[in-house]
User: Fold this.
Amino acid sequence: MSEAATTPAETPRLLDKYVNDVKGALKDKFDLSNVNQIPRLTKIVVNMGVGEAVENKKRLDAAMVDMAIITGQRPKLCRAKRSVAGFKLREEMPIGCKATLRGYRMWEFLDRLISIAVPRIRDFRGIKSNSFDGRGNFSMGLAEQVVFPEINLDKVEWVQGMDITMVISGGSDEMSLELLTQLGIPFKRD
Assistant:
């Protein structure tokens, strides 16, 4: 699947930057002979685990509404795979939600994450760069959903964290780190 899955009125800013600047820089830096070897962002998965939904179903409903506002698409409901008596959890009980972003929505979300949401994190000193999985994919967590400007603080009943996973082709943590750095993700300096 190419970067142009659906065509909006104008191309996202980060997609332009990737195509015009970052691809060439990555190809030169890593001395890649084939353009298909250049790492690219394939998809972004946003996940909210709502463990408190076992006692209060409204928590999950609020999380799904907030995720729909943040991502711009309807999230998928996630259910428990097995029963755990200690957590009062039964199999198939709804306990979270997730949204998979691709194409233009993915680039718009990443742009809002980098330029608006991350700077609004309290006591922010940079994102840790040790969260790569060995295959080039990067995961990060946010402690609260209110860092996104789309969320109205007055209407938030419960603060909910989320996990964001960026799936990157290329298979190398080093190349993925360079890609995300050039796209503008503020990693913590060692």
Remarks:
- The mean pLDDT is 83.
- The beta strands are 41-49, 76-79, 94-101, 138-142, 162-168.
- Residues 13-29 form the longest helix (17 residues).
- Residues 129 and 177 are 8 Å apart (CA to CA).
